[in-house]
Specification:
By secondary structure, the chain is an alpha/beta fold. It is built from 14 helices and 20 strands. It has a domain at about 30-240: Endonuclease, Chain A (2-Layer Sandwich).
Length: about 500
């Protein structure tokens, strides 16, 4: 089969060593949509922990409440345990003498949000010694460790796009002025749409291996796998969409002295796009990947290609990022519009009932009713070949799973349209087109999907888009190489500081 050609219907899209690291079985699988459901499920899972918890993420804020608005006068949640993350995990460790909790956070997040590092450092230094914090600086300068993985005793894993940090909590309603949707300082937080997955079984153990490998790479410490009876734990608040389904784990890992670039995620999405027959549905924080744009462009040139729906936020989180990423988005969108002769492409952004923009942080791709991919990777160059990422994919190998994938896609899209899943499914069945269903069901006011206004391709944004300064990547096929990492810079700064101190002492 040649590169990025659609696979025959009977063939799996998953190719370990090319577009995924491993494929293994999830005894249970669920798509977890939005932060309210995730934080509740995460809390339930952590309460069940016996031996080892690995929290691997871009950022952590241990001062947030996991269940906003549900604390009593003592700061406890309805389960009787502290609602704040730091107090909660401290209590879990104190009451479970064999439980160890490892928190691995991207080193750069300490620069972006230093205030959120203080509670973690305080907990690590003054809390139980079985809570260990590490900053991951093992990545090229300018890159970030972007994986968002939680492992509980190798029995349950969460993997997706939701960070355990401030501003991530919201419900699928994205209710205007929801009093629970506030920042840690009590100020209102913007509506926020996100997604992750929950899995048990052999694939959870594979994710645990990945998390322990990442911990060792960052710290040099090898962690043993828990020696516990093999049984599932499952949060009571979560449904189960699939049982005993193969799941592919795909990664992006920048090159280092002991391995070349790993761009399994890019390979996976390109194969997915090539395989689409009727629809490509994408949710992403950004839309700035040359490779993905070219792949979508090829499909739009076909006379009977698939509908393509991209859901994006209006703006990035800060003005520099917005200028850099969204001028690039403007160029990508215009390139697709030029070849879209049948009006099969649209890029839209969701708003809530008060027409307030909902920030899209989810990283999801659904191809027809055949493939669902959820993870930490965005549609940008960094996620395809610079940052460290992890995605999970499932594919339909029978009609039952095909219906499940369609239902999960409709769940996401119905949330944005403010309609029921059944209404959406019926309209898709009637029209035979996701795009036609969106056009018919989309309201003119209130909860809806709006066309995305494109940034002006001038000024600083144009320069940043030309240089891709904030969205770099290593070329496909980059071999093993020694790269300057954030750790090297930190060591260099420390050496300079020590030498400077000694010098001042000697001449003082």
């Amino acid at each position: 089969m040649s590169d990025h050609q659609p696979a025959p219907e009977s063939c799996s899209l998953f190719e370990p060593g090319r577009n995924c690291w491993r494929v293994n079985t999830a005894k249970k699988f669920e798509l977890v949509v939005d932060g309210a459901a995730y934080f509740r499920a995460l809390r339930e899972a952590l309460i069940a922990a016996e031996w080892q918890v690995l929290l691997i993420g871009w950022d952590f804020d241990l001062e947030i409440e996991m269940l906003p608005g549900e604390s009593d006068a003592d700061g406890d949640a309805p389960d009787g345990l502290p609602n704040k993350v730091a107090d909660f995990i401290k209590l879990l460790v104190n009451r479970s003498p064999e439980l160890n909790i490892y928190i691995l956070r991207w080193s750069g997040s300490a620069v972006i949000a230093p205030g959120r590092l203080v509670p973690a450092v305080r907990l690590s230094m003054s809390g139980p010694d079985r809570i260990k914090l590490a900053l991951d600086g093992r990545h090229p300068v300018g890159a970030c460790h972007h994986q968002k993985i939680v492992i509980v005793d190798d029995r349950l894993a969460f993997c997706g796009g939701i960070d355990v940090t401030d501003a991530r909590w919201d419900t699928p309603d994205h209710t205007p002025e929801d009093p629970r949707r506030v920042l840690r300082d009590g100020s209102p937080a913007d509506p926020w749409h996100d997604a992750t997955t929950a899995v048990t079984g052999p694939v959870a153990r594979d994710l645990a291996d990945l998390a322990r490998m990442r911990w060792k790479r960052a710290t040099g410490e090898a962690l043993n796998a828990p020696d516990l009876p093999d049984h599932d734990i499952w949060p009571a608040s979560l449904d189960i969409s699939c049982r005993n389904i193969p799941v592919a784990i795909s990664r992006t890992v920048p090159p280092d002295e002991d391995h070349p670039l790993v761009n399994e995620i890019e390979e996976m999405i390109l194969v997915e796009i090539a395989s689409a027959k009727s629809s490509i549905y994408i949710e992403s924080q950004y839309f700035a990947s040359d490779a993905v744009t070219e792949a979508l462009s090829r499909r739009l040139r076909e006379p009977t290609g698939p509908d393509i729906v991209v859901i994006n936020p209006v703006n990035a989180e800060n003005i520099i990022e917005d200028s850099a990423m969204n001028v690039t988005r403007t160029r990508m969108v215009k390139a697709l519009q030029r070849v879209d002769h049948d009006n099969r492409f649209c890029i839209l952004t969701p708003v809530n009932a008060a027409s307030q923009s909902i920030y899209v942080h989810a990283k999801v791709c659904v191809i027809d009713d055949r493939v669902l991919r959820v993870g930490s990777s965005n549609i940008d160059r960094r996620s395809m070949g610079f940052d460290t990422e992890c995605d999970l994919s499932i594919e339909a190998r029978d009609d039952d799973v095909s219906q499940i994938i369609a239902d999960l896609r409709n769940r996401l899209l119905a949330e944005h349209l403010g309609c029921s899943q059944k209404t959406l499914a019926d309209r898709i069945a009637k029209t035979g087109s996701i795009l036609a269903a969106i056009h018919e069901l989309n309201a003119s006011e209130g909860r809806r999907l709006q066309p995305l206004d494109l940034n002006t391709d001038t000024g600083v944004g144009a320069v940043l888009a030309d240089t891709r300064l904030l969205d770099p990547r290593f070329k496909r096929g980059t071999p093993k190489r020694r790269v300057m990492t954030s750790r090297h810079i930190a060591v260099g700064v420390a050496i300079v500081a020590i030498v400077g101190t000694v010098y001042r002492y000697l001449i003082g």
